[in-house]
Backbone:
């Protein structure tokens, strides 16, 4: 048996989604797991007024990974309301970090860079600023990173909320010609998939039995 | 920004040395125009009508004046290609420069460490919200009780 990974259909029209799904279901055996809730590490939550995209779980994981979720008594750590002090500057005379601290610093910083790029533009500047001192990071950078983590502790479940437009803006159609053309495209897609699978089986699966 | 939320953002240390703040604004502006053109192409590809120009907010009035007024400026002769690039896309109605006072400049959050109040204001303007607050009754979290940016 060969598994093909996820497919995601997008449209502002529910009917279009159902029709496309039916066409694919008729051609391939597939499981419909409903509306997307978690795609590429990003949680999607739907509300009447719009949609939320964020990575609260990932943020919590990062904080727990460096003991910045709760303190040793199990109480939440002190939070900060902004990710960086307004006058923050890298202190060239700071204490050099030992190998372990240095590698932890860089690892956490890279996780935050990913987070900032995916769903948290509010920490982007602070993360970017610290990234400029990666090669000569010292205790002053470590303290600045700690502040970002304290800020995240207070805002861990933040994500971007997109409000729903007044009316659908993505085009959709009930034109039968469009659906005929689409149907033939699904058919066209089916043929190369079969060829591909046959070649793949010939190359990989049969090898294992010979 | 689409639908009250940010869709693309980046923050980069400026490469070339600028001779004036107007010139520095031009580096940033031409980067954002490139990004805007790319988004417009993507939107067109997936079936949106992008007939109206994309609004780009700019907080430096002299930068806008130079982009809109095709006269030769002694102080900007060396940034000529960037200005021509901008003028061309303004003329083609791909983009539209709009003046935006510094206090409402969302992109400020990417250029400096801000005081708490301003940081929270701009965070809200980017469309960032707490999931707990969204799931509760109010749409706008109490910590960010500001009017949502349109």
Residues:
């Amino acid at each position: 048996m060969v598994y093909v990974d996820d497919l995601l259909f997008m449209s502002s029209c529910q009917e279009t989604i159902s029709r496309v799904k039916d066409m694919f279901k008729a051609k391939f055996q597939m499981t419909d797991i409903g509306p997307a809730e978690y795609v590429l590490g990003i949680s999607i939550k739907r509300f009447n007024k719009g949609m939320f995209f964020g990575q609260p779980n990932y943020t919590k994981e990062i904080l727990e990974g460096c003991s910045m979720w709760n303190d040793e008594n199990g109480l939440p750590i002190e939070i900060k309301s902004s990710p960086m002090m307004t006058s923050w500057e890298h202190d060239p005379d700071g204490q050099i970090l030992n190998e372990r601290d240095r590698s932890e610093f860089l690892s956490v910083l890279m996780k935050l860079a990913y987070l900032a790029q995916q769903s948290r533009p509010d920490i982007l500047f602070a993360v970017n600023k610290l990234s400029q001192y990666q090669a000569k990071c010292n205790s002053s950078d470590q303290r600045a990173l700690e502040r970002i983590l304290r800020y995240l502790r207070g805002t861990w479940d933040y994500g971007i909320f997109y409000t729903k437009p007044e009316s659908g803006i993505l085009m959709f159609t009930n034109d039968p010609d469009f659906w005929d053309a689409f149907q033939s495209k699904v058919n066209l897609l089916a043929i190369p998939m079969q060829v591909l699978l046959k070649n793949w089986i010939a190359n990989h699966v049969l090898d294992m039995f010979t | 920004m689409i639908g009250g939320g940010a869709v693309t953002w980046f923050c980069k240390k400026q490469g070339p040395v600028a001779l004036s703040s107007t010139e520095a604004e031009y580096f940033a502006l031409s980067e954002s125009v490139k990004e805007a053109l790319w988004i417009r192409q993507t939107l067109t590809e997936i079936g949106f009508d992008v007939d109206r120009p994309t609004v780009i907010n700019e907080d430096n009035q002299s930068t806008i004046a130079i982009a809109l007024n095709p006269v030769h400026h002694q102080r900007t002769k060396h940034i000529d290609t960037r200005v021509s690039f901008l003028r061309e896309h303004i003329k083609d109605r791909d983009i539209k420069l709009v003046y935006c006072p510094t206090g409402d400049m969302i992109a400020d959050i990417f250029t400096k460490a801000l005081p708490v109040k301003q940081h929270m204001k701009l965070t809200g303007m980017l469309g960032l919200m707490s999931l707990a607050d969204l799931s509760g009754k109010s749409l706008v979290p109490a910590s960010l009780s500001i009017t949502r940016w349109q």
Summary: Chain B touches chain A at residues 2-6, 9-13, 46-49, 109-116, 119-120, 122-123, 126-132, 134-135, 139, 148 (CB under 8 Å). The CA atoms of residues 22 and 134 of chain B lie 40 Å apart. Helices of chain B lie at 21-45, 61-68, 80-91, 116-125, 131-135. Residues 21-45 of chain B form the longest helix (25 residues).
